[in-house]
Write a structure and sequence with these properties.
Elements (H helix, E strand, L loop, with lengths): L20 E7 L10 H9 L4 E8 L8 E8 L3 E2 L2 E2 L6 E2 L6 E7 L2 E7 L4 E6 L4 E4 L3 E7 L6 E8 L4 E2 L1 H6 L3 E6 L2 E6 L12
Antiparallel strand pairs: 1-2, 2-3, 3-12, 4-5, 6-13, 7-10, 7-12, 8-9, 8-11, 14-15
This protein binds 5-phospho-D-arabinohydroxamic acid and zinc ion (ZN).
The site of 5-phospho-D-arabinohydroxamic acid has 13 residues, from strand 11 and strand 12.
Length: 197
């Protein structure tokens, strides 16, 4: 039997999609290698491995024709002078886009492609970001006391390539300096291997 359309509530205050979602949690240890301050990182992992972010996914088949959506909640905090953030990824199917809509908090979506271009778009409630195909993306919470809550939608067959970012990092780091944020070059970044045409 074909499934019929459905509606669902997005609870912004509790950052949840009641009854429909599967919740995934990531602790700091999942971000090993992504922060500059490795001693600070190790210390925080030893001291309890804090919860960095949660994803509430609306359950749908991971197939083309479907849309996958859900809430991403990045908690506030820093490792050294770098903010809490998601692992970040390319979509396995590079030619798939994504839309994020910010519901709460203040943050950035850091993006880059394999041709060397990078950009960052600010998240504030009511702002959306369109991630064009072929751009890796990472959410960064710029607030030191409030969750960053975004709603995302992407094609069901996109898949996630985490390995490229795990080994290369992002070109830019987002750091807290003089009471505000700054984007600085990531000295550990290495260009992804170019696939010859
Ligand atoms: C989002 C992200 C979510 C968590 O659903 O998966 O924000 O970030 P990581 O997947 O990088 O841990 C998305 O971009 N999906 O494609
Ligand atoms: Zn994505």
């Amino acid at each position: 039997m074909k499934e019929r359309p459905f509606g669902f509530e997005i609870d912004i205050a509790d950052a949840a999609i009641p009854a429909r979602d599967r919740c995934m949690q990531r602790r700091l240890s999942a971000l090993r290698g992504q922060y500059q301050d490795t001693a600070g990182f190790d210390h925080m992992v030893e001291q309890g491995d804090p919860l960095i972010y949660e994803v509430h996914e609306v359950l749908r088949p991971e197939s083309s024709g479907e849309l996958l959506s859900g809430l991403s909640i990045v908690h506030p905090g820093r490792v050294g002078d770098e903010y809490f953030m998601t692992k970040g990824h390319y979509h396995s199917v590079r030619g798939t886009a994504e839309i994020y809509y910010c519901l709460k908090g203040h943050g950035l979506l850091l993006m880059e492609n394999e041709d060397g271009d990078w950009t960052a778009e600010e998240f504030r409630p009511g702002r959306a970001v369109y991630v064009t195909p072929n751009y890796a993306h990472r959410s960064v919470n710029l607030s030191l006391n409030e969750d960053l809550v975004t709603f995302f939608v992407y094609p069901g067959h996109a898949g996630h390539d985490y390995a490229t970012i795990e080994s290369n990092g992002f070109r830019k780091r987002v750091v807290h300096r003089d009471g505000t944020f700054e984007l600085i070059d990531n000295p550990a970044w290495s260009a992804p291997a170019q696939v010859s045409a």
